[in-house]
Amino acid sequence: MITSSMNCLLTRNDESWLWHRRLAHIHIHNLNRIASKELVVGLPKLKLERDKLCEACQKGKQIKSTSKPLNVISTSKPLELLHIDLFGPSRTMSLGGNYYGLVIVDDYSRFTWTFFIATKDETYHVFKRFVKVVHNEKDCSISSIKSDNEREFQNEKFDRFCSKLGIKHNFSALRTPQQNGLVERKNRSLKEFARTMLNETELPKYFWADAVSTACYVLNRVLIRPILKKTPHELFKGRKPNVSHLKVFGCKCFILNNGKDNLGKFDSKSDKGIFLGYSLHGHAYRAFNKRTMLVEKSIHIAFDETNQNMQENPKTGTDDEFPNITS
């Protein structure tokens, strides 16, 4: 118990810090609240000022610093800053034999690109091709990129390529993924949407890359960029997106056998298939043909989007086992 003589030796704030320690290092806000509202008996009416750090609290309760979202637009045009990240490896190999997904997000428009690779070593070559394509499309150069410190981004070839094109490469701090949180959050969204679509259709997990690609294609056209109140597609492409052609991922479809095989007079003119998404290199749909076991691109496809008995399972075996499928 503190005597009156001891109280004289303590300043008001010293006494507050003493009660902070007595109350099991309670948070300053809570201590001030119970003291000001007199919610307990025996606690003097005091106010603890945050004029110093409590070393015990730092050692026992310190957490990572948070990165609060900014209510401002940090860039003024597309390609001024790109956020890049790699997710994987997936436990299941995709149809194309890939285990990783490379995600690139434009800071200004939030337009997103996804690429799928078998090993991390392919990251540099994929990014190099992407830069050439996007430079030709927008007729302007990438100013800077931001990534984490993983070896697929921080290496001599990557640095040399960026230096040659005058691209500034910024890195997030070690073990601080929130500094590149924009693309980290995009990764999470893409995987959540893909997981949802696969679960609805009960398709095998080796369709995960097709689901992620479709999710990216759709989100570019339907999400709204905060503050600017426009879709990523409109901000990057300069025109409003058309969504009338969108179909339910994984739905049953019928692919016209357009002269590929020598059909008899009474043979079926179409093959059953599974809708897998949209071609990124032309106006066409991508579908898995169950008869030929191939992924085909065509505009001559009829869709059955009813939710009843959505799919007959196209595989025979575990998710890690599938026929020799090519696209």
Give an overview in words.
- By secondary structure, the protein is of the alpha+beta class.
- It has three domains: 54 residues, no CATH class; 157 residues, Nucleotidyltransferase, domain 5; 81 residues.
- The protein is 31% helix and 17% strand.
- The protein has nine helices and ten strands.
- The strands form two sheets. The chain has a five-stranded mixed sheet with strand order 3-2-1-4-5, sandwiched between helices. Strands 9-8-7-6-10 form a five-stranded antiparallel sheet.
- A hairpin with a 6-residue loop joins β7 and β8.
- The longest helix has 21 residues.
- The protein is elongated.
- It starts with a helix and ends in a 23-residue tail after the last strand.
Can you lay out the helices and strands and say which pair or pack?
Layout: H1 4-9, H2 12-22, H3 28-36, H4 55-61, E1 81-87, E2 100-106, E3 112-117, H5 123-138, E4 144-147, H6 156-165, E5 168-171, H7 181-201, H8 208-222, H9 232-237, E6 252-256, E7 270-278, E8 285-289, E9 294-298, E10 301-304
Parallel strand pairs: 1-4, 4-5
Antiparallel strand pairs: 1-2, 2-3, 6-7, 6-10, 7-8, 8-9
Helix pairs in contact: 7-8
